[in-house]
Amino acid sequence: MALHDIFFYVFAALTLLCGFLVVVNPFSRSPVTSAMFLVLTIVSMAGLFVLLHAFFLAAVQILVYAGAVIVLFLFVIMLLDLKEEDRRKLKVFSLGAGVISVGAVAGLVVKGILDSGIGKNLPAATAEGATAPLGKLLFTDFILPFEIVSVLLLVAMVGVILLSKKELK
Amino acid sequence: MHVGLEHYLVVSGLLFCLGLLGVITRRNILVMYMSLELMLNAANLALVAFSRFNNNLNGQVMVFFIITVAAAEVSVGLALIVALYRKRQTAHVEDLTAMKL
Description:
The complex is a heterodimer. Chain A is mainly α. Chain A folds into 2 domains: 3-129, NADH-ubiquinone/plastoquinone oxidoreductase chain 6, subunit NuoJ (Four Helix Bundle (Hemerythrin (Met), subunit A), Up-down Bundle); 130-169. Helices cover 73% and strands 0% of the residues of chain A. Chain A has 6 helices and no strands. Chain A has helices at 3-23, 31-51, 55-80, 92-115, 131-140, 143-163. In chain A, helix 2 runs antiparallel to helix 3. The longest helix of chain A is centred in the middle third of the chain and has 26 residues, at 55-80. Chain A is globular and about 55 Å long. Chain A starts with a helix and ends in a 6-residue tail after the last helix. By secondary structure, chain B is mainly alpha-helical. Chain B has 3 helices and no strands. The interface between A and B is large, with 79 and 71 residues.
């Protein structure tokens, strides 16, 4: 097996395992554990991006997601001073129904992907996601969404400041 | 076995279903939000895989925008959660029943 394939299996297994541990963590009921496993998921996804030759996106993923979004989550957890999730009565029926329905959706998705024959007869993959071609695309074909996204970030910032005021004068 | 497009798509689909499981079963609002981020990441992986195997860089530009919008959405959503917690003093979704019929 090529080294590329080994790395893919390692990163894919790590991603799915850590994603599972975000949702179902048997270690503790606090959301900090879920946030730590989410960081691990995002880092292994950045590894998968590098395997797909999307180098700029892997770096952006680590910088933005692992560096800013998770830190924001942890700040909010610290601010709210959440203790352990208090134990409510475990609704076995609704939990079981949820797991079964999501399992059915997962089975449908995987079977649909494997049966569709989507990976056959593809040309050789040559797209390199280096910074220069991506930047050129961003500033020529996608200039309008780029400007709109910058306005969106400004609006989000103003909204957050407004929402966190203690009382509106 | 040579790793092809369907391998990446299967990983992306399973990750999406794991996020869906988190949103459905967990009752702490912050863990539900983290599972939502998992679903967004699964979509990102699918887009990058398609972009690589179809030799089209538009998928990667779209992922760039998705990451940016997700960051803005997380900040606004967390501000909302903080405001809600200040008012209701609970982070458990089942206590928030103001809009129940």
